[in-house]
Every structure is written in C-alpha cells, then in structure tokens.
Amino acid sequence: MMPATASMSSLTCLANAGNGSGRTYLEKGQAASSLTTTSIVEKWNSLGASVFSEVSSYEVKARQYEPALASMRSLRYIVSIYDLHSSVEISTGVNKSLDDIYTMDAAASIDPDISRYAVRKSIDVVEDYIDAGDLYSLNELLERARPEMLRRVTAVALLRTAYRVRGKLSKWMRFYTELFAHLEATHQDPHRALKGLIRSRV
Amino acid sequence: MLENTIIGNVEMFGVALAQFHTNVPAMPIQRHAALVFREKDKEKLNILHLASHYDLRCEPIKKKYKCIPSAYFEDDDLQIFAETASRMWDKNQEKGIPYGFVYTGASVFNGDLSFKDQVGAGLTCATFLLAFFNELGYDLIDIEDWKSREDDTQWQAYIHSQLTDALGEEKAKAMESSIGVAFRFRPEEVTGSYSGFEGEPLDFNDAVVMGENLVLEYNQQ
Q1: How many other CB atoms sit within 10 Å of the CB of residue A177?
Q2: What does the mean pLDDT of chain B come to?
Q3: Which residue in A8, B28, B55, B182 has a CA-CA distance of 20 to 30 Å to B121?
Q4: Nearest one of A159, A144, A156, A166 to A100, comparing CA atoms
C-alpha cells in the first residue's frame, strides 16, 4: 500500500519506463526485486505498449487499485508495482528512523546526560512524519518499534507525541498495548507512565 | 504566614504565574500564565507563553514570574514536556497563535503542532497551557464541570476592547459573540491545578481553591 498519492505523473512515468520493455523498470526498481515483482512485471509486459498510452490519460487516484472500466482492470498491476517499490523505500526510511531512535536511546542508557536528546529524537521523528502528512510511515514505525529495546521515557515519548493523531493510526493501540505489557512485566508502573492516554475525547 | 506549597523551584519544566497592575480601575490586576522550561544544555529557564493575539513568545524568565513545580510528574514526564514545548515553539514562532476565549478541550493543534487557525479559534494564556497538556494526553482540569463567574463577562469585554484593532473585523466579531458565553479558565486556576494535579483532572471547586491559594502565596512573596 502506498502512503501518498499515485499521481498521474508517476503512473505516466511508469508507463513510459515500461514502454517496450518491462525489464527497464525492473532494473530501476532493483530494491523491489522479488518473485512477486517479477511476476507482476510479466503481467505488465503482456499488456503491450498500446495499453500504456491509455494509462497516461486515465485518471487513477491514490489507492484506486481497480479501475472503473472493466477493460482497464489490468491497470491494478501497474499500481501494484508502484506500491511495492514505494513500500520498500518506506520500509528503508522507517527502519532508519527506528535505528536512529534505538541508537540515541542506547547511548542515553549509558550516559543519562543525553537522555533529552534521545527523547527529542523520538519526538522529532514522530512530528516530522506528521508534519509531512506521512501517517503511513508513522504507523509502520509504531508497528515495528519494540518497547523492550527502548527506555521507558523514549517509548512513552513516541506514544504521547503520536497521541493527537492516534485516531488515524491503526498501530497506535498496538504499541500502547505492547508497551503497557512490557512496563508491567518489568515493574515500571504502566498505569502511571501511560496515564491519560486511554480516554474518550471531547 | 502561609507556607509555600505551590510556588517553588523548577529545574527542567513547570508552569509560571505573573501578576501585573494596570491603570484600569475596573481591572486593577491582570494575571498571566506560562510554561517554563529549560532547553538542553542551557542554564537559564525560558518561558513559553501566549502574550497576545498571534504573539507567542519564548524568552528568558523574568522576576515577576513565579515558578510552579509539580509533585506528581516525574523526570520522564518532564523531559517529554520540555522537549515538546521546545518543538512547539519551533513550529509556531513565525505565525503565532490567535487569541480567543472559546476552549472546548478538543485538539487545537494540527498534526505538526501548528495551531489550527480558523475564524473563532484561539486561546488565552491559560487555555494555551490546557491545550499543551491535552495534546500529550493530560487534562489538568475537568472542563465539563467548569462554571461561569459573574465577572467573567467583564474581563472578556475588557480583553476584547484591548484586542479589537489587532483582531480585525471578522475575528473581532467572532470573539465578541463568545463574550459571556465562553467559560473563563483563569491563569491562577490553571497554573495552580498543575501543582495540584495527581493524575486525575481537578474539578472546578478544587481548581478555584488552588488558584486562590496560589494568589495568596504569590502576594506574600
């Protein structure tokens, strides 16, 4: 799934890249190489160049995986290629953000004087995703974050900073639950640390 | 002599109250609420406060501000508060935050911590503090339980008259329509409630008592 929009230009670009040779696109998207990708590209190739010219004039919106016209249904594969390529980029970005948080936090556990830098890193990562409107990546980050790899303050900072957009983050509650369980298992008073985060809002 | 139980030292994060004397007979004393925090690696405390319409300020704390620590919040919480305040300043220092009386407890900040600026939206110095804590999951007071006081309208009309030019016609009208309707959350009650907060929102009566005690302490210093 892609986080942002699949704009006309990006789809047109894909079509051009594949015009006459699906292999061209596959090489451009090497990071996305997998059996799935290859399979998708083969289907894409089988459509032929004439279909691609139709793509460039067809309005495909974000997350619209199946075109309204039955004759254009094969388009969903093109969107899937874009998705796969994007998701690999997102995955790399999220992993890097998470690594940065882990690294800062590990350093802070050795030197408490830099604790606030670790907290700030956590807040900045979340705020930057929100600022960019990239809640998809933020959701991914919350899904991948491991509470047991973080100090309590850093994990709570992640959760509280994302609190105001939690309604748009399907993984916020998952992270809350995992963090609660971890704090409870390690006798770090989850009720106190996570106070106020579960309640109805006006 | 009242023992100081509310005013105290703040090392990393707290709130602060200031009191000003005006030359307006109807409003001889004005009070002002602020967040107070220390930036990383800085010695001096800063105050972050909504001074006026679109006038959010972050500046070194001045003598007339009395700091109010919390016995409830722990070091972990204070680190998160201080860094969030710092980031909030980064996001709002250019545009500022509009002034307004209506506060419902609903989120007032966009995802990026910039204020949701629309006609009728705005904060007072005190509701800026409430909104700050609310964004992080804490309600200092129970706003559902809040009550109007007789002199609220007089204060709101006074502030409106002071800000009319700065507001512009449309916003001045919107603010005028909230006079006597919007609840007033007083600076001393909000900052006092930060001191009295023990995990659950303070109800109206408790917040009022905290505010009265805080003013007593302030005036004895």
Answers
A1: 11
A2: 90
A3: B28
A4: A144
pTM of the complete model beyond 0.80: no
pLDDT at A31: 34
Residue-level length of chain B: 221
Query: For residue A84, what pLDDT band results from cuts at 50, 70 and 90?
Result: low
Q: Which strand (E) or helix (H) includes residue B34?
A: strand B29-38
How far the first Cα of chain B sits from its last, in Å, is: 10
Mean pLDDT value across residues A65-90: 52
Q: Name which of A117, A119, A164 is nearest B80 (Cβ-Cβ).
A: A119
Distances in Å between the Cα of B109 and the Cα atoms of A67, A79, A112, B214 are: 37, 34, 31, 29
Which positions in chain A touch B199 (Cβ < 8 Å)?
A: 192, 195-196
Tokens of A68: 């309204």
Nearest CA among A160, A113, A151 for reference residue B12: A113
Characterise B48 by phi-psi region: left (phi > 0), alpha (psi -120 to 50), beta (else).
Answer: beta
Q: Tell if the CB–CB gap between B83 and A160 is shorter than 8 Å.
A: no
d(C-alpha B161, C-alpha B159), whole Å: 5
The residues, any chain, with a CB within 8 Å of residue B109's CB and separated by 6 or more, are A164, B88, B115, B116, B131, B135
Q: Which residue has the tokens 């936090």?
A: A105
Residue in this structure with the two tokens 């959350």, named with its chain if needed: B185
pLDDT for the residue numbered B117: 66
How far apart CA A21 and CA A3 sit, in angstroms, is: 27
Confidence check: pLDDT of A62 > 90: no
Select from B126, B148, B151, B28 the least CA-distant residue to B68: B126
Using an 8 Å CB-CB cutoff, list chain A residues near B197: none
Nearest CA in chain B to A126: B112
**A1, A28, A30, A90, A188 from A86: Cα distances, Å:** 8, 12, 12, 6, 38
Instruction: Give the residue from B85, B136, B46, B79 showing the smallest Cα distance to A108.
Output: B79
